[in-house]
Amino acid sequence: VQLVESGGGLVQAGGSLRLSCATSGSTFSFNVMGWYRQAPGKQRELVATLTSGGGSTNVADSVKGRFTISRDNAKNTMYLQMNSLKPEDTAVYYCNGKIVRLFTTEDYWGKGTLVTVSS
Hints:
By secondary structure, this protein is mainly β. It is built from no helices and 11 strands.
């Protein structure tokens, strides 16, 4: 299974971007999908997650009200709509998919897409 992010780039503060994560298989293969980010010199942190049925989301407080996670199962793609971007949102954004099995959880990661927000 492969995850490929796209949609990153340079944007001014207050602007918007939409990230996409395309999967080589079905998005239903994953119990949970999500976005994480890693800023320079910092640890990777959770941005938002979405369950396979799309019924439950978890969004970090730092982006709540500005970022929206969604998925299009027909296109096997997950999205992150980012509005009102701030310089502190600058990071490499990674797509993640989790397959929860009886005794283990398998994590799949994309290679990341860079988002740079200028002030």
